[in-house]
């Protein structure tokens, strides 16, 4: 389980990241998104249709233990993370679409995440109780900083831009601290974690990337927009998953449940770096047309 210091760091990280995301938003962003809803709709289908189903299928196919399977399903049902916005920028994707998708999935997660977790976990035939009410409460609380960030932007663009930069850097530093400290303290647990858990994480990551990209291409989106949907689908808001685990589940099972989202958080950064390099190399000579 995370120490009290790490739990405080996680709470602070989520607050700062969501505050920074809110500081990037204005009513114009939502208006722009509504003018081209196709990308967002495909992203929502990928996020809440494919990812939870894929997580469930992977957990069944690999025979993952109940607590690990629940964690994987929760990660698959989690909305897109703000990290996707950063990788979208570096991969020459569409940043406005990425931000719009992150916000849309975050808002939809209030209903979709507990609904999907409840449906798929009940199909595992497990006796473990999933506290859906606490999950909903945690998601609502996490979205409050987004509203505060938007309010700050409405008052001052300059302050909002500063807050956005600080939030991104600060969030990356804290998640790096959490991962490093957990790895050092729980190295034995990570070493004992079966290869199937690491395989499950990799399959969910790349499954999201591949589906997001190719379903976008098949439905007529440009390569630039398809890269955006791809990253937004594969990069999940694992800090939110961890916060839900800590606030909703008994302390006795938290350590076992935290391992998978922490592995996902570390893996997704590495996988996204490789994918970003690939996308940048292929975007040099491509011509993006519809």
From TrEMBL:
<feature type="transmembrane region" description="Helical">
    <location>
        <begin position="258"/>
        <end position="279"/>
    </location>
</feature>
<feature type="transmembrane region" description="Helical">
    <location>
        <begin position="39"/>
        <end position="62"/>
    </location>
</feature>
<keyword id="KW-1133">Transmembrane helix</keyword>
<feature type="transmembrane region" description="Helical">
    <location>
        <begin position="68"/>
        <end position="90"/>
    </location>
</feature>
<dbReference type="InterPro" id="IPR038770">
    <property type="entry name" value="Na+/solute_symporter_sf"/>
</dbReference>
<dbReference type="InterPro" id="IPR002657">
    <property type="entry name" value="BilAc:Na_symport/Acr3"/>
</dbReference>
<feature type="transmembrane region" description="Helical">
    <location>
        <begin position="196"/>
        <end position="215"/>
    </location>
</feature>
<feature type="transmembrane region" description="Helical">
    <location>
        <begin position="135"/>
        <end position="154"/>
    </location>
</feature>
<feature type="transmembrane region" description="Helical">
    <location>
        <begin position="102"/>
        <end position="123"/>
    </location>
</feature>
<feature type="transmembrane region" description="Helical">
    <location>
        <begin position="6"/>
        <end position="27"/>
    </location>
</feature>
<dbReference type="GO" id="GO:0016020">
    <property type="term" value="C:membrane"/>
</dbReference>
<protein>
    <submittedName>
        <fullName>Bile acid:sodium symporter</fullName>
    </submittedName>
</protein>
<dbReference type="InterPro" id="IPR004710">
    <property type="entry name" value="Bilac:Na_transpt"/>
</dbReference>
<dbReference type="Pfam" id="PF01758">
    <property type="entry name" value="SBF"/>
</dbReference>
<keyword id="KW-0812">Transmembrane</keyword>
<keyword id="KW-0472">Membrane</keyword>
<feature type="transmembrane region" description="Helical">
    <location>
        <begin position="166"/>
        <end position="184"/>
    </location>
</feature>
